[in-house]
Specification:
By secondary structure, this protein is an alpha+beta fold. It has 20 helices and 16 strands. Among the domains are: 4-149, Resolvase, N-terminal catalytic domain (Rossmann fold, 3-Layer(aba) Sandwich); 166-262, Hect, E3 ligase catalytic domain fold, CATH 3.90.1750.
């Protein structure tokens, strides 16, 4: 018995009764722990040997856990194997040569270990050959039936089943869009692309009183996730078939089968955002989503995450970012950075991130914002193609499909991937050109930051979740040094003590660190950010004013270093190995 269809046909009961009857008639003790049920495991591909009960049985025989002379009862040879003839015959001899008597219950034949008669062998080979031919024919007929259906798809729909936002016309030739449901689906994709996870989307749909599809009394997270995963929203229909008890795709998707209700750009942006949340973690955010730097900000000293700390209201209250290592009482700098101060400094000095464009209403999208969204969609397309390429390689290793066919598909995938990568490069160039032509004044930027930090309610959640998503797309690394480079001096000395280094060289290195630390003690905190396009920026701030900086260093895509300061030399830190030429001037 090998499939769930056979199970529904009472195969298990029939096989068990026959086994008991045979055992009783021949004075055998039936050991049911090794029944070859293999529900959902295919004998056609030999999976029952590699991963099912038969494989375990053979392993136990060869290990001596099942004594020689035991009997293996199967309903018929086609339940044992429907593989190619040479593999089936090899399996037959593998069983009998290891001292196991093989019994086929359908014809009551006994094949004794090492003693099978010539006539019996010929008969067994014929049965095994027929079993393989029948399985191949069944597979071919199923594929042919679907091919025939696909050829008439323009005349009649293949199946009456359709997504919940569509309904089949009475003549079965078309699907009609249920407008109010399609609007809900589009809203789900827009919320996902703006940074909201399926849990938050589900909760907000229920809180807003949006009717669930079908007979359900409310929205559930699993269904929202299913909507976000399906390409039916793009109009595609993917036929499926059952293999080894599992539902697997049959052939290529059929485009334009359903009416398209979601733009491909929006679909890809949602997939990219979901992928980022899977990799970096999602989590259930507060109503205002106060921390924009979750899964981004790390401690510049130990590398652990910066924890968002809420101390409530009143004196000493407020929200802070603090090293999670230090928060647990471990060895790291315990100083916290007031969250609003850091957020303000970040948007003021990381000029590559255009806050004005990010906060622009969707109805007022500028050219650069449209390009930004297109870039995210292309990144999503690239991720899809890379996954498709990996799956194609896996199918080649599996050997179940023609290598020539898969090689052709692989070449197509590689060509499409190269095209997408070129489009990404072109969009990046266009965005940079536009940004160089547009800028807002420092006062306008400060006003925007004030507005962002004063938002409340649903608007705050929507805007800040969108911002958090955009930051995860743009920023690849963000390190905070809440006490500048000062804590490095002690660590540097300890490392040098542990190393076998010339005393004079050791002294020079410590002097270098000390000189940079004098600047750090005066002006303290700093942060460094690395962007997805390869640009890096480090900013050294004045402790008492988050809007004022001492120095900043920019490393471009080409590795060129440039910097600016307020009459102060640029500091030195890990990854920014730039020493002082002169001591810091007295203040």
């Amino acid at each position: 018995m090998s499939t769930d269809i056979q199970l529904k046909g009472d195969s298990l009961r029939r096989q068990t009764e026959r086994s008991k009857q045979y055992a009783d008639e021949h004075g055998l003790e039936l050991v049911e722990d090794f029944r070859l049920e293999d529900i959902g495991v295919s004998a056609f591909k030999g999976d029952n040997v590699s991963s099912g009960a038969l494989g375990k049985f053979l392993d136990a025989v060869k290990a001596g856990r099942i004594p020689k002379g035991s009997y293996l009862l199967v309903e018929s040879f086609d339940r044992l194997s429907r593989q190619k003839l040479n593999a089936s015959v090899s399996l037959f001899f593998d069983i009998t040569s290891n001292g196991i008597n093989l019994v086929t219950l359908s014809d009551n034949q006994l094949y004794k270990a090492g003693e099978a008669e010539f006539a019996q062998l010929i008969m067994s080979i014929v049965v095994m050959a027929r079993a393989n031919e029948e399985s191949e024919m069944k597979s071919q007929r199923l594929s042919a039936a679907w091919d025939a259906k696909r050829r008439v798809v323009s005349e009649k729909k293949l199946t009456g089943l359709c997504p919940a936002w569509l309904e089949l016309s009475q003549d079965r030739k078309d699907f009609h869009v249920i407008d109010d449901r399609a609007q809900v689906v589009r809203r789900i994709f827009e919320d996902s692309a703006s940074g909201q996870g399926s849990f938050v989307i589900t909760r907000r749909l229920n809180d807003s009183g949006v009717p669930a599809f079908g007979r359900s009394t409310g929205w559930v997270q699993s269904y929202v996730t299913k909507i976000l995963q399906t390409r039916a929203v793009l109009g595609e229909f993917q036929p499926h078939t059952k293999q080894n008890g599992r539902r697997v795709p049959l052939g290529d998707p059929i485009p334009d089968y359903y009416p398209q209700i979601v733009d491909e750009n929006l679909f890809l942006r949602a997939q990219f955002a979901r992928g980022k949340r899977r990799i970096e973690g999602g989590g259930r955010k507060g109503e205002a989503l106060r921390n924009l730097f979750t899964h981004l900000a790390t401690c510049g000293y130990c590398g652990s995450a910066m924890h968002f700390l809420n101390k409530g209201i009143g004196p000493g209250g407020g929200t802070y970012l603090k090293c999670s290592h230090a928060l647990r009482g471990l060895d790291c700098v315990p100083t916290a950075w007031r969250y609003q101060d850091f957020e303000r400094s970040f948007f003021l000095f990381v000029k590559e991130i255009d806050l004005a464009e990010m906060l622009r209403a969707s109805s007022q999208k500028s050219e650069v914002l449209i390009l930004d969204e297109h870039a995210v969609a292309l990144a999503g397309k690239k991720s899809e193609l890379e996954l498709k390429r990996e799956r194609t390689y896996a199918l080649i290793d599996d050997g179940a499909i023609s290598v020539e066919f898969l090689t052709t598909k692989l070449r197509e995938c590689e060509a499409e991937l190269a095209s997408v990568e070129q489009q990404i490069a072109d969009v990046d160039r266009q965005r940079q050109e536009i940004r160089e032509q547009q800028s807002i004044s420092p006062d306008e930027l400060r006003l925007l930051i004030d507005q962002l930090q004063q938002m409340e309610g649903p608007e705050a959640f929507s805007q800040r979740s969108m911002l958090a998503t955009r930051l995860r797309e743009i920023v690849t690394e963000l390190k905070l040094e809440v006490e500048g480079s000062r804590p490095r001096q002690g660590k540097a000395a300890a490392l040098l003590d542990a190393a076998d280094i010339d005393p004079e060289e050791r002294s020079q290195i410590l002097n270098l660190v000390e000189r940079s630390d004098r600047e750090a003690q005066r002006y303290n905190r700093s942060f460094s950010v690395v962007l997805a396009d390869g640009v890096s920026r480090r900013v050294i701030l004045k402790t008492d004013d988050p809007a004022s900086f001492v120095a900043e260093v920019l490393v471009g895509k080409d590795g060129a270093i440039s910097g600016s300061d307020r009459g102060m030399p640029i500091g030195w830190s890990d990854g920014w190995e730039k020493a002082f030429d002169e001591p810091a001037p007295a203040q």
